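[step 3/7] fold_predict: job queued, chain A
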Amino acid sequence: MNQRTSAGIVAIAVLVVAQGCVAPQPSQDLFAPTEAQLKIRSAQTRSFDVKDRQAAMRGVMAALQDLGFIIERANESLGLVTAARFAEPNYYDVVGVTVTVRPEAEGRMMIRANAIYNNKPIEDPKVYQNFFATLERSLFVVKQ
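[step 4/7] structure written:
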């Protein structure tokens, strides 16, 4: 290897290292939601006429159990319920769901469900429609 080739390799190595040290410039809207994120969030969220967070939490847990989920954690002070179930027909696959319950306005609770299948978000609105339909029935029973 001659001196000229060695100098060229060293120059290229220096450029590659220097380029790797340049921090990427974050855009101003780094945390701004995209249109797709807003659409799925809309499908994941519903408001219910429930005054008591505890009653809403009981309704959420009943709905999840009706859908075959096993409640893993429920924290009333945080308004958080997590649950999971094995997916059919492949029982190695797991569906997980996290539901948050928070006061929205006087006499109303905002409930949001986030579901995952094998660590990938479920974005199909029908899944959330099914959950909220079951939740409505559960909240009706809890009120009675």
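[step 5/7] annotate
The CA atoms of residues 68 and 77 lie 25 Å apart.
The first strand starts at residue 45 and ends at 48.
exit 0
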